[in-house]
Amino acid sequence: MIPLDKQLHADALQGSEGNRLFRPIPANGVCTLLGDKWTVQVLWRLSLAEEHRLRFSALKKEVDGVTQRMLTLTLRNLERNGLVVRHYFPEVPPRVEYELTEMGGGALRALEGFNFWVRDNLHTIQEYRRAYDDAK
Amino acid sequence: MIPLDKQLHADALQGSEGNRLFRPIPANGVCTLLGDKWTVQVLWRLSLAEEHRLRFSALKKEVDGVTQRMLTLTLRNLERNGLVVRHYFPEVPPRVEYELTEMGGGALRALEGFNFWVRDNLHTIQEYRRAYDDAK
DNA sequence: CGGAATCCAGTTAGATACTG
DNA sequence: CAGTATCTAACTGGATTCCG
Fold first, then answer.
1. Boundaries of each HTH hxlR-type domain copy (chains A, B) (predicted)?
2. Helix, strand, coil percentages, rounded to 5, for chain A
3. Which of A50, A69, A111, B20 is 20 to 30 A from A132, alpha carbon to alpha carbon?
4. Which helix (H) or strand (E) holds B133?
5. Beta strands in B1-136 (DSSP E)
6. CA-to-CA separations, A124 to A52, A118, A121, B80, B103, in angstroms, rounded
7. Percentage of residues in chain A with pLDDT exceeding 70?
8. What are A85-127's pLDDT values in tens digits?
9. Which residue minimizes Cα–C1' distance to D12?
10. What SS3 class is residue B20?
11. With the CA atoms of B81, A115, B42 and B127 taken in that order, what torsion angle do they form, in degrees rounded to the nearest 10?
12. What are the DSSP E strand ranges found in A30-125?
């Protein structure tokens, strides 16, 4: 996986280059923005929550196997990209809530098409895999 | 990045779990199927080619910085998933062509929504990043 | 509670050399 | 030409510890 910075830049270049019939698909942006192990799951859990908000600990419970470290890193990235807002309440013990932004919700919706495609083709793909592996 | 097999399985489970208002987005399938460094680029180049076919060497030229090794690995995976077909001509020197399948083209089209989203939001994202990094 | 720091293992990708 | 094999560097993510 390309580091986020380099890849987004590459995507930007791709996007500006495009005077073709089929505009280049900078969908490596998928990888770089959402393509790591936890990002999409975090966005999705937030989208299901009331007011699209969850505390750190609640998020950690819902995202299945995520470690504290990875959840923190994932949220930092999301915040940096403007897909999530961090609300910090300096109480004791401290409370932190993460909120899905408009743009974050949009990212999730933008994946719906692919979501359906996966659902519709998963079975076929698995058959291809079996066939390929058996032939080996 | 989760190994392809495990993740696809996880996606499958997610998909079958879903009796909710918002169906779970198994879009980690993005990562596992297309989320590595070269896969989407390869699909895209094939989609632009005549008859959606290119020789190995042509593909290598078009995909920018890809190494021979990585192109081979990427194509093997695509073939295994049924997104690409490999045509081997036992001449000397040998000739090999890779062809995008119907399903492979579908995968690319399924990413269009996300593609547009990236294009529309790239600038905003970059501004968020600058702001975040400057605040640091 | 929420997170930063450190260390470590596994995976991925690049470079290089060799081959049918 | 289209690979395969090998070695190595880099990155990712997990486990653990400590802190305000």
1. 25-126
2. 65, 10, 25
3. A111
4. helix B112-135
5. 53-55, 84-89, 95-100
6. 35, 10, 5, 11, 9
7. 76
8. 999 999 999 999 999 999 999 999 998 888 888 888 988 998 9
9. B1
10. coil
11. -150
12. 53-55, 84-89, 95-100
